[in-house]
Fold each of these.
Amino acid sequence: MKNILWFQEISKNDGASVGGKGANLGEMYNAHFPIPNGFVVTSYAYKNFLEVNKLQPEINKVLVNTDVDNNEQLQKAAQQVQSIILKAEMPKELKQEIKYAYENLNVNLDLMNVSKKTISFVNLPKDYPFVAVRSSATAEDLPDFSFAGQQATYINIKNFENVVQAVHQCWASLFTARAIYYREKNNFEHEKVLIAVVIQKMVDSDKAGVMFSMNPGTNDKSEVIIEASFGFGDAVVSGAVSPDRYVVDKNSLTLKDMKIGNKLFMFYRDRTSGRTSKKMLSPDKAIGRVLTDWEVGKLASLAKKVEAHYEAPQDMEFAIENSSIFLVQTRGITTNEKVTSKIAEEEKQNMGLEDEKAILTGISASPGIGSGHVKIVEEADDLDKVKHGDVLVARMTNPDYVAAMERASAIVTDEGGQTCHAAIVSREMGIPAVVGTGNATKILKENDLITVDGKAGKVYRGAKEVLKEEINIEEKPAEEINIVSENVKIGVLEPTVTKIKVIADFPDLAHKAAATGAEGVGLLRCEFMILSGKEHPGYLIDNGREEELISRLEEGLTKVCSAFKGKTVWYRSLDARTDEFRDMVGGENEPKEDNPMMGWRSIRRDLDQPELFKAQLEALRRVRNKGFKELGLMLPMITHLEQVRHAKEVIKDMGLEDMEFGIMVETPAVVQMMDEFCEEGIDFISIGTNDLTQFTLAIDRNNSRIQKWYNEMHPAVLKEIRHVIKTCKKHHVKTSICGQAGSNADMAKFLVDTGIDEITVNVDAVSTINKIVADEERRLVLEAARK
């Protein structure tokens, strides 16, 4: 068995050694389809790596006791196994073979077989190519089984060291949580599922996409379907953009139908850095046609020929560089009449949601559609009954619910508005949510099957969502495109004067927030870290266990600062209400307040319980001592100058006087006294629109009955914001905003016009707000130039 096989040496029958992806690329290459050259690090090389390092027993030891239905155990096991693989040394012989193959990727295999000495003469000097490094999994006893979408892909890799690193990471991706779960549920022995790695020359595409040699939605074999966008094809494959869709008659190769998508951005290779970058498209190009009639015809003809070669319908990926068309992948489509009927029915359901009669209507809190069985949670003891894919239904959520919320397919609450706990956390996690329904816990019954439309704020009976994993179609590989190599940077924002920062509450999700390209963290709430334990933080301190609290904070802060290394991270001190503490161990002495929103919270508690405040400061000090000097502190719910003075004294006593220090502007009191607060010596302010709006308009933002009056764009709120920004600029104090309003397009325009320095938004709004800010800044410059 060989460690390396070139495409020229591979056929479609070699799946056991090179995986399905590798086998199809070799097959098409040798059938003279336009395939960029490449080679495969075989499954034998991976198996040998395991044997040399004696890893299998160690891997089995981790997996044998893992309950894959327990998400915490599953994630921990995945991390452990991946760490075992990444720490093991790749055999030197294999490294040299990869090096030789990569450095001679431009050379004909027949010439290579003549003499390595000849090759070294012919091939010097040279510029090494950019390549895609992609996983190609297989099973010894199930060579035809598909493992698409479970392992990693790395694009735009250059230089031998980076290629070897990417191969190593592909091996480790065989043990993602998703892959482990999938194998366990399908009763596959882990040691029998192997992995090969495809290394293929990158096409520096100006257009790319996917195509099907039959219509997979209708089972119509007389049509070819093509989806395309500008730049690299990953934007289409991963669903990051809405591509153009072309329907072609297979016999005549004429265009039957065309739908132009709104392609907001493209991925491309930066000519200076060589990295993958993201560029926003101009409005005209975003809605412009990607493919010419000639390109559509050529692609459809190619799809027809590939289908004829395989004697079966195919799902292909293509790339176009300077009018040259390349195929970079193909796989078979399997379908039948039963599937066709199911797809048609599900499409009808999905398209007709608005025509269905909703059983509940509430406030749109987090977009998306999710279906599942109802699990009604009345108290913390009910949380364990929420399994993966269930819909969590509650009167309202609190920080104790976070673990269960992660397992849910959707969330519905009786109470709350767009800035309540359920809404904020759902948006952070990307889970569909409807809040403020009034009576979901009464109307819905345990185990009811429902569909939640988070965007429309409606709940329907039955499963209306298209559940792709239940359809017997071998789908295109929505591969986990782990853009982690130094050559790849997905989150590149358009340069703006106004900085775009992000809200990051969950340390374990900080890498996803960082991947947006945000220029730092404008709000790091500690409640999710502090309240994730079962014990009251004050209880820990009173029992001499403050180190547990400090260490928990230190660990979380380090994760966030590491993800945003070199960028500002603003930590907001504890702002939990008394009702959020009461159910914790040691929380029985929490006061019972009629309105906790206006009660003993935030800076008021911190100053009354100085040891709790000092514990937070100690965690900040430790993280800053690790080199994360960009970590700053802001105090919430400030109303009095004495609060700032007292806090600064404690901060100085802790040796943190050089730390960037700011306050939240959440009360009319601070707005009216902005001059005085600036003169106290603060570095920045952050306008917390959630509380500022409720205190200005006298509206409880958790009261769904009066949500129609809650409006962050109310003239009174806008006047306050304008006054704050103007005053802070006079005192050279940096201005920012956080809260749901920052993700609002109209508010973003208003803030840019008013001259704010930074806008902090939800993770899913970074790209959108960045574009709105860039457009508004350009408009202001153009208007100024015309005057």
Amino acid sequence: MKIVQKINDKAPSYGSIPFWSWNDKLESEELRRQIRRMKELGMNGFFMHARGGLETEYLSDDWFDCVKACVDEAKKLGMEAWSYDENGWPSGFAGGKLLNDKKNFAIGLLTEEVSVFPDDEDTVAAYIKNNDGGYDWVTAPVEGCENYLRIYRQYDSSYVDTLDGDITREFIKLTHEEYKKICGDDFGGAMPGFFTDEPQYFRWGHTYSNTLPKIFKETYGYEIFTGLPAIFEKDVPNGDTFRYDYYKLIHELFINNWVKVVYDWCKENGVQLTGHAVEESSLGGQMMCIGGVMPFYEYEDIPGIDYLGRGIADDIAPKQLGSACAQLGKKKALSEMFGCCGWDVSPTELKRITDVQYANGVNLMCQHLYPYSERGQRKRDYPLHYSEHNPWQDSMIGFDWYYNRLGAALSEGEEYAPILVIHPIHGAYMRYKKGSDWLNEIEGHFFGLSRLLGHNQVPYHYGDENMMKKMASVEGDKIRVGRCVYDTVIVPFTYSLDSETCEMLKEYIANGGKIWLYKDAPENIDGRKADLSWLKPNIEWEEILAKRDIRISLNGENVSALRKMTRKLEDGSSLVYIANVTDEELINVKVGIPEAKNVAEIDLETMNVIPVHGEICEKCGGRIVYLNFENAQSHLLIVNSTENDLSLADGKPETVNEFIPVPDTAVFAEKPVNMLTFDIASLSKNGVDFDEPLSIYGIKDNLFREKYSGKAWIKYTFTTDENFVAKDLRFVLEPMNQQSVTVNGIEITANENDWWFDRAFKVYDITKA
């Protein structure tokens, strides 16, 4: 079957690209060895990621020697050696170089009440309370006034002002241009480009920039200082309107002065940009850091998200990503995933985490994390880790190739998504304040609509109003956004729509376009009170459900545990991916596919095309198939392929309810080495008197608090049965800059040719100690 061959051919290029944590003193040969191992695992490349624990100086000659070695090795193996653009995160401070000058610092705003008029350099503006419940901006002391509201700057010495494009250009000069000098002809080739990680504006309070007053006045025609109290107090007169103007401008400045500047430089210099913003999965998170994530994706070659933890989140983050990629025509959509899942996460849980994202638009995996070293604190760097330190790393080969193939499959054709949901982020501008409950109402409805659509397998995309302003148009009774055309629009609960959106909707409705309102219509346009009585639904919820290309049910009920994506292929066939994103077992799920002439399944492990159980559906003129879903199981169906000569298997798939005998050919794994971890010890500062046993972390914390700088003795104690005879007893120790190691008073030395778990962990033979 041609589609199978196409998926197989493309699968390597959709191979995962892990975060490769450069977190120690780097050695070129060890870096090359680790790259070869990644290739064996089915990975397509790596992100060279400076991270906590790094002992090679960032952006030094030694650093770039390592970069060149990795680019060379990747080139030999047909892999991609991507650069990560920062030493840590968020991106933008050039490993600290830009933090040497206070004028580059990120800025937030704080308030306080003072009795004397403030005129210091950190004060932004001063106000006195008026009789209307608001504040009057004053620029000089007011006679008799003893109570001023002072709004002043709070500087963040750990990050930069991302609303200032000059600072962004300096970041590029210190980082990207250095890579260009070093990589030579491989710049844009074996080193394809840069990963940018969590750039953001000031997130710890109320964002500000010294560039704002001038640009605000030019944009809106009034002084920013007249309204600043509204970002602190909800009910001041015209507060909603000011907040709308303020946060819309901050968002646009961030996009245009940070990510667009970096992207434009990358385009001009022949490299790609990938990475992700931050806090993409909610309105409050986006407001805190970026003011709307979807426009960020316009300025990436491979747009991306971050998906942390082992829980299954709402569909919002991957759906926003998938929507923008479809509209922009960007075939690859990346997710940095698995960070913070913990050392005890199971492969089954990882599959659920991946499936919910792939069913919503992701098709490229960035595993977090693949560490160079695990010594010391490094092993606690937001695990699980996917390097050789993972005891089941060999099993990741099958896992990786499964998603290489699935990513390739879900990049084929175009996603079936006839419904456009206007994204409500601009409504959130009117009510945002960090740390408050002002967004609870709109946030609750945002999640509610996402769940209603996702749990019912309704195919849709989000439409960001800023993107629509540039990319959208009315085509008869349809709306086009970039490369996607929608015949149905959903207006969510929101406080405001942009004027350009309203004009487009009026034309669309007048042409007979279908529209449904999740709740009541908003009451504002561009953050200002307006008459939207014309905005009424002309279809019911049942007509939204009717837009589904397949119908999924179990015992006559909807199956909220399943997520689905359909890809329409050029030859008229379709790929349908259905994933169980829960730990539930779902037996004999009924999948109705109208107008289907044939249906089969592509087994992503073997890439064989296999029959599915089902029957002809006379009513819908198609097929009904029955699928079983175990915990985290998924199915990839091929529908209406002209090459499919497989008949439906009769009846429903069988379930196994009895034990299967173990075949004689089965081979059982050897038991692992019996190990005991020493993480409780006693501390002495003189080698004679020892404290009570305490965790190593407790000892470390106590020494830090005391600012202790002398010698220390650490004693680990364990007891054995009196009949215990050691035949092969070994002790493993991480590097500790120790002067000596003794067991039962006998000094021992490490076998320099032996190691365990990490090549830095030395092994001591203590059998005779």
Amino acid sequence: MPAFKPFTVTPNIPPALVPLQDIARNFWWSWTPEAIALFRSMDPGVWKSCRHNPVRLLGLLRQERLEQLAADEEFVARVNQLQRRLTEYLQCETWCKSNHGDLLGLVIAYFSLEFGLHESLPIYSGGLGILAGDHLKSASELGLPLVGVGLLYRHGYFEQRLNAEGWQEELYPRNIFEDLPIFPVLQQGQPLVVSVPLPGTELHARVWRAQVGRNALYLLDSDLPQNTPEMREITGYLYGGDQQTRIRQELLLGVGGVRALRALGIAPTVCHMNEGHAAFMALERIRTMERERKLSHDTARQLVSLSSIFTTHTPVPAGIDRFSVDLVRANLSAYAGELSLPLEEIIRLGQEQSSNPQDPFSMAVLALRLSGFANGVSELHGRVSRAMWRGLWPKVPEQEIPIGHVTNGVHTNSWFSQEIARVYNRYLGQNWFDDPVDRKVWQQAGLIPDQELWECRQREKQRLITHVRENISGRHQRHSAHPVELREVEQILDPNVLTIGFARRFATYKRANLILRDLPRLRAMVQSERPVQFVFAGKAHPADQQGKQLIQELVQRVRREGLHRSVVFLENYNIDLARRLVQGVDVWLNTPRRPLEASGTSGMKAAVNGVLNLSIADGWWCEGYNGANGWNIGNSVEYRSPEEQDEAESRDLYDLLEHVLAPMYYERDLRNIPVRWMAMVKNAIMSLCPVYNTNRMVEEYTERYYLPSVFQYHLLEADNHAEARALTQWERKLRGKWSEVAIQQVECDTSLLLKSGDSLPIRVQARLGGLEPQDVQVEAYFGRGGATNGEMSEPDSVVLRHEGSHHGVHEFSGAMPCVGSGRYLYSVRVLPSRPTLPGKFHLGLIHWWEG
């Protein structure tokens, strides 16, 4: 067999077009309409075939075409104007600087196993990655000093094809990194490589960089000749391989990611884990602080905890990465040798029930135990997460478990259509693009003429239908379909018909088949005088046989029932197809089994484009729905069984489509405009767009988590870490003396006749053992009482004042405000108190009055 060796040829870009190389390697172009239009105009066919990848475009264009463009004065002027815009963008005043100054020295590191920036960088699978990409984009828009850390997959996520029977098949195109909008990180002219110890070997990874506006995303790639074939495959596939591959991916992300930043001279002040995959990052930060700052393990852990944020996206325990203890020992033994903490202690940090030696090792538990701040991704998901993890804080009331929420958003500028952008520019001005959080700007959407907005929406729908027909025609040709089927493609979907979109990962809890429960009723809807049509898309995980069966069932039942012209499934759901769908349908359908949708973001992208949401009250829609900006499916009640839930909610879905949506959509004025429909569209734009965007989300993370974390971190590290050391000693003292804390007496006259607005006095006598009054916080805990003893609705607490002590007994007093009438319950508790604690439940210590 002949031997082949690679060599590289770079494009010979004419001098007048050289600025395009810089623009192409900054993802700023991906949310800048003028940049997209410029690249497309260079050769629309090549632009489409290279998946809208400007680096690949420049490499594929023939030299004569490049010379032709360089000689085109108008085109060169557009290039120069675009370069000026990028320079101005990088240098202009930002929200962060205006509101929080320069934040000198602050760096936030954001770790995620996947990033979905654009279809041209296919290292994402779905919502988690796209959210991470949108987070980076908004951080850039806001001027937040943030760096992303992830992995660079040789094959990325799969491409989906359906065979003739409608069964999903997976293709794994190989990414050629040199053709992607990224570039290798060099030090002294050589590729930067970091390593992570594994038993009997070292895992080496090369570092690449993607530029996302003002900020960088660093990606680690293990496909190097110095690694064994097994090690090279660690970054071979996103969510591929077995449990061993997954734990090694997460070691590389967490440990290798921190080492890459250090090699680059980046010392993050705050680290943010986007899911538990990155939790090993905290161990590596502890190791680094111990060695470089000569800190004890406990002191280093205080610093790391107070500067770490963990965002959970999972509403069920089954979705958490869990590894067997034996697998953890086999893969962490070499790395644990570099830590001051024994391997068995590390394992216990990740066990929910650490008293059980065989309890699985949970990445989420490790993240929760090593983070000072944690949050879910919607208000409902915050409540679900507190319930799910209450075992880690056994004495803390569920409502007070220290897991908050920041509701997700979307990067508005990445998802709008050019049609809707022109309308917004005309009636909202430029500010909707520059500052999507400004509610006053979005209120001007009410001024958009119905006819103009309606015609804009209709053009987008026609554009989507053209793409749908191309997608299905390609599938038919691949399956050598009958000529009659190929001709029928042009009759698929009708631009004048109410069009419902459903696109997301095909997991069973998302219930893509809910609309199929009553096929006669579905057929009647499709064929009625006020018809409805449906566009589906989505991938099932390669190992999810049930998800694949959902896709096949949908495709086959539609075909059998002869509904294929009105109910279609599109192959290979990705960012490009998602963008087309949220821009082109009339209604976005979401049918998860409540409360299993942590947030969901596709409906937010739809709202940006004037598409209405029809959704189960789950995730973000619990907060977004206002009664006049879309529709709720079902009543958010508890059902006795999933079957009963599916039956009730599918019936409500049919009722809404038949009796509410279709009549409203087809009710027209003399201009053939659905006036009531357009009023709802405008309400959705005005109420949802300024809230459910990642600029608002990142501002919220900054002010509620990043900056408080930075403040605490600086307090701890000042004066050679004096407060960090003091905090460690104080915690040790507290844990040693906590068993001596006792509430001896509570005086509270509950026989008083109280009216709403009154206060109920309370006095407490307590022994603190060897602790001082300033070490604790004594609280009255109260709220409206439920049917069960101890059950409260909307509990509250007040801190009681220390009045003095006598013979070791401390007295505290205060009053409980009675803000409403009804039956109340109260108790008393003692909690740790110190200004540098991130929260009163951080240590998990709490002493309750036992009566």
Amino acid sequence: MSTGSDHLFSSSGNGANDEAEPSYISIPQYDEPPVSIKDFGREVFADTPKKIKEYLLSLFPIIRWIYRYNFVWLYGDLIAGITVGAVLVPQSMSYAKIATLPPQIGLYSSFVGVMIYCFFATSKDVSIGPVAVMSLQTSKAIAHVIHKHPEYANDPTYIALGLSLLCGAIALGIGLLRLGFILEYIPMPAVLGFMTGSAFTIAAGQVPGLMGISKLFNTRDATHLVVIHTLQNLKHSNLDAAFGLVSLFILYFSRWLFAFLGKRYPKYERVFFFGSVLRNAFVIIFSTLISWGICHHHKNPKKFPISVLGTVPRGLQNVGYHTIDQNLASALAPELPISTVILLMEHIAIAKSFGRVNDYRINPNQELIAIGTTNMIGTFFNAYPATGSFSRSALKSKCGVRTPLAGIFTGIVVIVAIYGLTGTFYWISNASLSAVIIHAVTDLMAPWYVTWKFWKSSPVETIVFLGAVFLSVFVSLESGIYFSFAACLVFLLLRISFPTGQFLGRVEVVEYLNPNYSEANGAIEETSRIDNDPEDKKKYEVVRQTSSSGSANPKPTTVKKYTWVPLNHHNINKDVLIQPPPPGVFVFRPGESFTFPNAARQLEILVQEVRKQTRKGGVQQHQLTLGERPWNDHGPRHKVYDEGFVDERPLLRAVVFDFSASPHIDLNGVQALADIRQELNKYANREVEYHFVGILSVWSRRALMAHSFGGDNSETRPERHYVEISLRQAAGVDGSATEAVEEESKKKNKYRDEEERDTVSQLSNDGSYIPIIATNTPFFHLEIPNLEFPESRE
């Protein structure tokens, strides 16, 4: 190997002709110094004024699009805003019932949410307002505070305001500090398990109101007790049941009917769509008319034959600044973690979902700022915690919303209801509101096929999901989400702590276009010529095999190459011939990032395999006297050895670590590597080569080099220096492909050209090739080298 500017280039493990004789070409030296703290600081603080400007502008996304607002957008926003408003009015009063708050508080939360959110939103589809799950958590927080401080029993709205303010402040702080990534640590089983359990809890709690028996027992008991008591008291159902059951039937039947008619008559699909989304409003309107007809002639409300909503104050009440005292804040503290998680988890999940559906990206941190600001400002208007609603967001999206400004029109609809329809709200049947709630929350339950899909994807996480549902229903909502989060965290730590590293070997592969698969064991028939234009073609990498029925014969221009796969045929065709590395060479791929929970355990797997497959260097075990034998050499006191025994196992020559699937190495991992190097060098009685593949992190390279890995020094000089080179980029051309290469590819057949470039003898010595990675780190590679040692070739 030349240590100057001339380096030996040899075809590596992915080359085409490993049997070819190596050639010498001249390539420039390329030394890459380790990254420094100064480099890190320069990267972090680069363009600081520009970053500050972008940060300030990102706080108000409306600035970036409001000046382009037009009549087309206005039409879409107007339709979507009014439609969502018609749905939001009855839903908000229903959800206020779940939160054990007066119905007008739901209306206040509705108009504040939709109108404030649009100024900070990065999602055009999300509709902010009262939601079922957050309402349920609000009711639990209110009950918790009243239990500790009975003096607040007469003012549950004050408790809800405090919860909204504190949760909003936490969300705002997380967003401003750009810590929204922490929400990614909430796993899907926790979210769906909690949502399903909560939806069942809400539905079970509304059945007594649906049947008119809610006053006969405590509907805030544990869910299973509510179900038992409901079944025991069904015989006491009254006229409310007629309103509730009929309303519930109409809601489900109309949804099915409009969906059927939309498919049956596609021309009128949009008409049927609006008929479906307004079914809640229609049910409330007609049930209210009937309720007024049978109740208005009674002078005493206590003699009404059905339960009605009652008085709803007209207009906004008690608008202004509200002070949260210290006792309330301390009483709410235990409820803040779960309340904040619910507030943010549901909103971010909905925003991301509709962003993917409608082809735009949201900013999670800005969404946290939006929801935090909305809830904090909402306290001035007696609003309780509001977040994104999946059902209303879906409706808003289907209505063709164009911008977040649609929330303004939704807010106007709610304000009109607050000031003009409160007298009508008095006659709304409570049973009909319960039907609206049950109809809405049942869509939040994960259907059976989702559970089955989970089971096929990950049985362990399915058990976590079912456990979250069970605990949410039979214990408490908090226990459900805490259990699922803790269980997923434990499984994650177990997976990280007990990885299964793999030893790799090579397989020869051939690249084919559009092969025909026969019924024989792996035989492939090629029926069409290779097309130079692969735009509409599909590539298959097929392992070359022979069978009793025939073989796959590649065309002369087809490129053969090698890839590295697990030696134990894991996820590989069992009939494939896998070539092990040369004798004394081990290629090891860690199963996880090389960090403190697993580094030592993964290396222990390597050491055991090395001791099993290679012999110890120096004096052999059978040549030791009794006094020279180590204490842990178990066996008879006087062993009988065959004097003619020869250990044919090879000596350890090199260990290759494939870190392409393990992007991070921490201090424990590097120290463990250094310890294993010392152990294996002593075992082999020689300097073993340690190669590292796929390490692109500059900090991982720095850590390894700090422990004398990768460097080109006299003690660890590789027997053969494998340098990976590529074509030099043309001056003034950005990207990996140059104009010269593109022009060359037009003149020659693509596959013949690839074969020629993969042949060492075809490399030109005109200076057009340069190293891909630093030449001063000969033990770092992009791909796994062959490591054919002279002794191993004999």
